[in-house]
TrEMBL record:
Keywords: Metal-binding, Zinc, Zinc-finger. GO terms for molecular function: ubiquitin protein ligase activity; zinc ion binding. This is Tripartite motif containing 59. Residues 10-61 form the RING-type domain. SUPFAM superfamilies: B-box zinc-binding domain (SSF57845), RING/U-box (SSF57850). The lineage of its organism: Eukaryota, Metazoa, Chordata, Craniata, Vertebrata. It comes from Petromyzon marinus. GO terms for biological process: protein monoubiquitination. InterPro entries: TRIM45/56/19-like, Znf-RING_euk, Znf_B-box, Znf_RING, Znf_RING/FYVE/PHD, Znf_RING_CS. Residues 103-145 form the B box-type domain.
Amino acid sequence: MEHLEEDLTCPVCFSLFEEPRVLPCSHTFCRRCLESVLQATVEQFPLWRALRVPLKCPSCRHMFDMPSAGLSYLPLNYSLVAIVEKYRRQQKLQRERELAESARPPACAEHSEQPLNVYCLTDRTLVCGFCLTLGEHRSHDIESLASACAREGRVLEESTRALLNVTRGPGPRREPQLLELEAQRAGYEVLVNQEAAQVEAYFAALRDDLGKQQMAVMEYMEAASRHASLGYERAIGVLRGVLDEHAAVLTLAGEAQDAMLLGEPVAFLQKMHVFRERYELLRAAACAARPEPPSFGPRCQDYLVRGWADVPLGRLGDAPLPR
């Protein structure tokens, strides 16, 4: 229906066609709209008033010369007139049906064809005749719609009066109570924000203390690492010296054996003298070259697990540190 109404609407006045006239270009407009267009053209070209007046189509902008007979010269669109009249009658009938349906009582949800025309006092709801005779509202107290409306109207009036008395009467006013609650809420929000700031400061201090303690412990670990590295370097250096001397003494022993086999007593005894001295020194150095691994303590379980377990949370700065 909406699309049909668009087709039956004049493009100038945007209303249903009234006495539609057809231009030579086949476009159709209301006679009254064409008269307005023609009047504007006559005012624009006053010298043509007694002659043919040019008329421009509002849709395609094509120019036509209107004869002196005026718009009566243009043919009437009889088919369009009939369609518009039929459409208006249909619209009128539809409005009448809508008015009739709006005046009809609403239908029962359980019995769709039955109107809700009785008020059930027991359940305080509208019901139909089938609900009273066949449905779940059998044997309930009922009253007519007029009586129910009158009674509920009195209830509404009394309730409204009571509500007005609450705000206007001598009793406790709701506005001051509302303002008081809003003020309490604002104060509560301020208190919560203050508490949140204190909590943030507390945990910031904890993080600061923990950071300092962690830095101190890590410095101790680095010092322990340097101490162990130096100790092992010394032990490794001593042991390498003993191994080098061991190889040198073995070489000297071989030279002494060669001199003995060659029958050179002087050379043998000289080398044997040197061998004996270095051999005794090597034995003494080998006994001394057994270094113990560097000690590492205290261990983390001594000061973190045992020492820190009894430290209060707010006194982390006093927690024991390794020395």
